[in-house]
Amino acid sequence: MDKIFEQLETLLERYQELQELMSDPEVINDTKRYMAYSKEEADMRDVVAAFKHYKELKQSISDSDEILRETDDPEMEAMAKDELESSKKEIDEVEHQITLLMLPKDPNDDKNIIMEIRGAAGGDEASLFAADLLTMYSKYAEKQGWSFDIIDETDTEVGGYKDVAVMITGTKVYSKLKFENGAHRVQRVPSTESQGRVHTSTATVAVMPEYDEVDIDIDPKDIRTDVYRSSGAGGQHINKTSSAVRMTHLPTGIVVAMQDQRSQQQNRQKAMQILKSRVYDYYESQNQNEYDEQRKSAVGTGDRSERIRTYNYPQNRVTDHRIGLSLNKLDRVMNGDLEEIIDALIVHDQAQKLEQIQSGEAKLF
């Protein structure tokens, strides 16, 4: 804790300096510079306010102690004791708040996401489970007030998905869903099982931050684009026009195929949007050591092959293996009630970051 508070005075000085700079006419007339200072000031605002309140409480405790040492007035003594007790109780809460505010922040937390769900081991049952996960996330997004749009899908004859990609937009989407990366395992009796045996199947989930212009710039020469006729439902229009698009990013080998839109131009736009996000995620996760370490937290590496959660239908139980959390309300979870699991993952991640700070393995703020 001392390590954290050592930095707060310096942070406060920088905050005061930023406020002075933002009132300087020369800075105000330089839009780019002003915006940069504004963002830095906004990022500090909450922790500075909490630190100022902490200092006020420390002063209040000191004043109350002094009154208790010097006063002989019973009424003053009673007031000082009440004030001292109240301030000591509140200062513990403010210390915890400051600690959380000072934890290293994921630069992608405020972003929208592209989520990919794929049926993995288990054939038709895996594709059906992929569809169930899609519904679960859709209902959770609805509860959060987010937008949820399917942007690519390959369905199966039994009504499931071989793979499906969705765009989820709203407030701090990535911060809440980033821990969903990995393999999700289901244990249940498939609808096709005649003898009532419980089967185990898996589906994988990948969560990628939405592409942003400042994040990555792909050279058009690195993209090969092929067009072809769409398959599946869609009527005569689908059959007569080459509206489907396949884009390949040559340096990474990442391929995106899009055919769910009516026109080739719409499919191009959607394919490019997904391609950029996949390439961005590839470079972030493969080529940046700091990003890699961030993903290898106690809640998992983020690798899609890692089994992170089991959904046991016979026992109505869901278990997150990374934090040892089991809840006997699978029916509610599949209906989008993910808050308890996600909140537990966030708290666990915060605890791990705090541990790293205290051991000197991570930087603050």
From TrEMBL:
Posttranslational mods: Methylated by PrmC. Methylation increases the termination efficiency of RF1.
Modified-residue entries (N5-methylglutamine), positions: Q236
Alphabetical list of Pfam families matching this protein: PCRF, RF-1
Transferase listed as a keyword: no
Principal location listed in the UniProt entry: cytoplasm
Source taxon at top rank: Bacteria
GO MF term (any one): translation release factor activity, codon specific
Domain Prokaryotic-type class I peptide chain release factors: residue ranges: 229-245
Keyword Endoplasmic reticulum recorded: no
Keywords: Cytoplasm, Methylation, Protein biosynthesis
Protein location: Cytoplasm
GO cellular component: cytosol
InterPro entries: PCRF, Pep_chain_release_fac_I, Pep_chain_release_fac_I_sf, Prokaryotic/Mito_RF, RF-1
Function: Peptide chain release factor 1 directs the termination of translation in response to the peptide chain termination codons UAG and UAA.
HAMAP family noted in UniProt: Rel_fac_1 (MF_00093)
Family: Belongs to the prokaryotic/mitochondrial release factor family.
Full protein name: Peptide chain release factor 1
Source organism: Companilactobacillus pabuli
Gene that encodes it: prfA
